[in-house]
Amino acid sequence: MNPLKKLVTKLKEGNLSELLSFFDFPRKIMTKYSTPKLKDMLDAGVHFGHRARRWNPKMEKYIYTVSKNVHIIDLEQSEDLLKKACEALFDIAKKGGKVIFVGTKKQARQIIESEAKNCGAMYITERWIGGTITNFDVIRKTLDKFLTMIRNTEDGTYEKEGYTKKERLLIDRQIGRFQINYGGIANMRGTPHALVVVDQRRERTAIKEAKKAGVPVIGLIDTNADPTGIDYPIPGNDDAIKSIALIVNALAGAVKVGYEEFEKDQKEEAGKKLKEAAK
């Protein structure tokens, strides 16, 4: 078949995968992350803000209207800003940057932990330990102690060194406490490259530390929040589980694809070096 007629046929059929292969597009375009549409956000209740009397005037530009004394968020802005936030996270992850997801409110904890683990990011779901970013040298000592205790427990070092059963039990309990507060950032080795937060009001300390260290902040912010310290604000319901899950899933998806691209680039670079060394 004539190439031009073949192209027209593919356009009529709407066969995107074959159409892209016709132009020999890079495969990575096909694996690009996706973001939710307006209907998805509407179904998840992302548009519901707080009662009008509980608002922050700085959020006015993101509010569409008031219905039954409840602020309704402008989802068109939310959709656009979510795309920008995802793009920023993708670019950071594509370069191998470290991302921390922070969500300590009850509704967000399980979602944050699950999505962060799935995309290969770090997370904090219990409480932000003061100095996690701005006083990392001290935090690093705690993390090293935590990892050493886990390693010694798993390889039987404590038992070989004559620790009693009671002493080992106390160590296990200490590891449990460490796991709650530091488990999600156990492999942290320096200042992160991005911070993702759910609920600006609750995570003020984390945001303050990030800003002081020059770390960009991506945040899901409700109508009672102050967007001033957020580099990539995403106006939306930060109380409903469905809303949190939808937004965090999109952000984590961007990070995951970014890390996949980073690993691919690393492998290609390693392959080139091996070929050059073999010459």
Walk me through this protein's architecture.
The structure is a single chain. Helices cover 54% and strands 12% of the residues. It is an alpha/beta fold. The protein folds into 3 domains: 1-30, no CATH class; 35-133 and 191-279, 3-Layer(aba) Sandwich (Rossmann fold); 136-188. The longest helix has 38 residues, at 241-278. The relative contact order is 0.17. The model is unreliable at 16-31 (pLDDT under 50).
Mean pLDDT across every amino acid position: 89
Strand order of the largest sheet: 5-4-6-7-8
Helix content: 40-55%
- Number of DSSP strand runs: 8
The CATH superfamily title of the largest domain: Glucose-6-phosphate isomerase like protein, domain 1
**Structural class, please?**
alpha/beta
What count of helical segments does DSSP give? 11
Shape: globular
Q: What Rg do the Cα atoms give? A: 23 Å
Beta-strand content bin:
5-15%
The biggest sheet, with number of strands, parallel, antiparallel or mixed sense and barrel status, is: 5 strands, parallel
The helix/strand order is HHHHEEEHEHEHHHEHEEH
Topology at a glance:
Layout: H1 3-13, H2 16-22, H3 27-30, H4 38-43, E1 48-51, E2 63-67, E3 70-73, H5 75-94, E4 99-102, H6 106-119, E5 122-124, H7 136-154, H8 157-160, H9 165-182, E6 194-198, H10 204-213, E7 217-221, E8 232-235, H11 241-278
Parallel strand pairs: 4-5, 4-6, 6-7, 7-8
Antiparallel strand pairs: 1-3, 2-3
Helix pairs in contact: 5-11, 6-11, 7-9
